[in-house]
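Continuing from the previous page of notes. For each protein in this section, the sequence appears first, followed by its structure tokens. Read the first protein now.
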Amino acid sequence: MHGGAGRWPKAKHLKGLRGVRRAAETGMETIQRGRSAIDAVEAAVVSLEDDPTFNAGTGSTLNLLGEVEMDAAIMDGTEFQLGGVALVR
């Protein structure tokens, strides 16, 4: 689990660490409730996406035209099933 790449302003470090911890705990709670690993990954990612601290979902970066665009993918490594989208506005 990580909160993204690049340089983070020092003022956002603590907020970012809290968000990553919250996402990891969300994933772990999902597993503890008997759900699948892919359900846990999805729950953790939703937690990150809902946190405007991160460059995902709610806080996506603008493209060169100033529009919000997002990519997303998820894969079940056991069955090699996957889904993804790109350039979603």
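Done with the first. The second protein uses the same format. Note its length before scrolling.
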Amino acid sequence: MPGNKLNLLLQRRYFSDERIWRRYLAGRLAPRGARPVLCEGIDTRAAKSLKYRSANLRFQASRVWHHLLTGAGFAAANVAWGIHLRSSHVACSPIGLTRGES
């Protein structure tokens, strides 16, 4: 699902190089580059107005807030996913079986 940070939990399996994965992950959690603008192609005079600049600033702040929230959600889900995977490996391993189950 594009835009959903939780799909990163699955995408990690497709990266063999840890450095490339970390760079990709950092780029998804905290995008760099040109900041999004409220309205593209707006008249130059309107773009310089206080009303537009304050609205654009609120919009950009909402994008930062969105990335903070989704990043925190990903961090929590990543911890939960790791715990789940470790517990399922123990439950499915032959060492985790008792004599009555084997």
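What the second structure shows: Residues 29 and 68 are 8 Å apart (CA to CA). The longest helix spans residues 50-92. We return to this in next week's lecture.
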